[in-house]
Design a protein that fits this description.
Pfam families: SpoVAC_SpoVAEB (PF03862). By secondary structure, the protein is mainly alpha-helical. The chain contains 6 helices and no strands. It has one domain. Helix 2 packs across helix 5 and helix 5 packs antiparallel against helix 6.
Amino acid sequence: MDYLKAFLIGGAICALVQILMDKTKLMPGRIMVLLVCSGVVLGFLGVYEPFIEWAGSGASVPLLGFGNTLFKGVKESVSEEGPLGLFLGGLKASAAGISGALIFGYIGSLIFEPKMKD
């Protein structure tokens, strides 16, 4: 049942983003930034953590979850290291995800033949 809930919640988030992309003139990069910043704001307001506990991976995997991870990392790092934590916290908290994306993206580019859009 947890898998179904994660699939439905993650799918709903992605569907809402797709609607936003189709119905507005916002560029995909701006929508991605909007999602990450929304995750940070929702984390700051204390709304996103309970949502993640309820929805599971369906809420933690999309870009909203990445923004929340950045917020949590900065919050913890600032409490431990002071103002320097503003710069270190987000990188420490999200390093594994960013590294994984780079590594798997590179492996994908070796397996397939990426081409530029015309």
